[in-house]
Amino acid sequence: MSDLKYSVWLSTRVVPGTRTACKLAEHFGYDAEAIYNAEKGEYLAVPGISEKLAEQLSDKNTDQTERILDFCMTHNVSILSFDSKYYPKRLLRLPDFPVILYYKGSLPDIDNEVCIAAVGTRNYTEYGKNNAYVISRDLARAGAIVVSGAAAGIDSFCHRGCLDVMGHTIGVLGCGIDVVYPKSNRDLIYEISLHGTLMTEYPPGTEPAGYNFPKRNRIISGLCLGTLVVEASEGSGALITARTALSQGRDLFALPGNIGEMNSCGTNELIKNGATMITGAYDILAEYDLLFPHKIQTEKILVPMRTLNISNEPYRRVASGNRPVYTSENEYQKEHGNGAGKVPEADANENSGSVKRPKMQREAKNKNFRENVPQKAESDKKTECTLPMSEAEKTVYSAIPENGSITTDEIVRSGIPVSDVLVSLTTLEIKGLIKSLPGGAYAKKHQ
């Protein structure tokens, strides 16, 4: 039996979105074959594994697994297993990582990309629609990957803004890879599968159920360095993604809105509680351009304002007038043949109208600002944290080196319970005592 088959079998035995897979993986050395070959007694030796689950794992029947593999091979669906070297480490560090990812399109090297989640309400306003499109367009223009849920509303405009400048976008579904939901996004979902990545942890044929989407949200934020909430009411599902991002130690950004506006209540509340307020893509990318200088080019988004022409027309491209418009899948494949699915190269003159701010001008402005800000005397600077902390927070905080960084896994390996680590890291970051770094690492913010 192939190595991939063991992982697909495991995904049919554990419930998506739970910590069961992580417990099994840690116990059996992240080896899907070892998990498959284990006996009931070995499963029961894993903390948290119930008698019922041990019985399910003891069932080695692979009929369902065979059907899934046959479907994926027939319909050109790729499978990424948690024990694959290509599986994103950002996801693998989560305590509830997906065992399997089914995907269509090209798979970028997630761990070496600036991936930004952009989410929002289905019941959008013109303000939310335009900002979702422009910010996502500019993120993609500067080299970031935009990740969203392919849902109706704000998610759709985030994907569209990215696609219209030939950027790479990832759509994470709450159903099977072969199920189109919502139906109104059929053309958009197909285009994402051609020019980006369409992804889900649910096996083919899984219908969209309400409880699938909160679980799906952990993948959206987990793939990314930061999550942007564009527009959200108090009960919006986008706020679930925001809370999930914080629990994962990711950066959280929010677009402010009018006071009293229903769709801005959620984002304004996030800002009140510590989310970074942004007014454009530059505010987000400024957090990462020094860490990923080979990926991010912020000067590409400093362009003159233009009248937006946002369209739901499939396969439309506004980045270049030289690119054809395709109105059907057959028309696209007729011209491109087997090359369909590759991300087209952007035109050389795509950014010919951009206005670059000279580096010396930026440095001079920053230097002038710093020189005019009153500086604290050395004796006034705090040398240690004075904010109140729980015992668990104190333990986790003391595990972080004074001049350096440490990953979540390294903290857990020091003997601190994983639940205490995850909760404490989130609260310490909200209090402004620590900061998250790429790759799941944390460092202290010196007062």
Can you walk me through this structure?
This protein is of the alpha/beta class. The protein has 19 helices and twelve strands. A nine-stranded mixed beta sheet has the order 1-2-6-5-4-3-7-8-9, sandwiched between helices. A hairpin with a 3-residue loop joins strand 11 and strand 12 (441-444). The longest helix has 16 residues, at 126-141. The protein starts with a helix and ends with a strand. The model is unreliable at 303-308, 311-333 and 335-385 (pLDDT under 50).
Any descriptors?
single chain, 447 residues, alpha/beta, DNA polymerase, domain 1, Arc Repressor Mutant, subunit A, three-stranded antiparallel beta sheet, 12 strands, globular
Give a short overview.
By secondary structure, the protein is of the alpha/beta class.
Task: Supply the helix-strand structural class.
Answer: alpha/beta
Biggest β-sheet: count, sense, barrel? 9 strands, mixed
Mean pLDDT: 82
Task: Report the strand count.
Answer: 12
Percent of residues in helices comes to 25-40%
User: What would CATH call the architecture of the largest domain?
Assistant: 3-Layer(aba) Sandwich
- Globally, the shape reads globular
User: In DSSP terms, counting alpha (H) and pi (I) runs of 4 or more, how many helices?
Assistant: 19
Q: What is the name of the CATH class of the largest domain? A: Alpha Beta
Number of spatially distinct domains: 3
N/C terminus separation:
56 Å
Q: Round the Cα radius of gyration to an integer and report it.
A: 23 Å
Name the assembly state.
single chain
CATH topology of the largest domain: Rossmann fold
pLDDT < 50 stretches: 303-308, 311-333, 335-385
Strands side by side in the biggest sheet: 1-2-6-5-4-3-7-8-9
Strand residues, percent: 5-15%
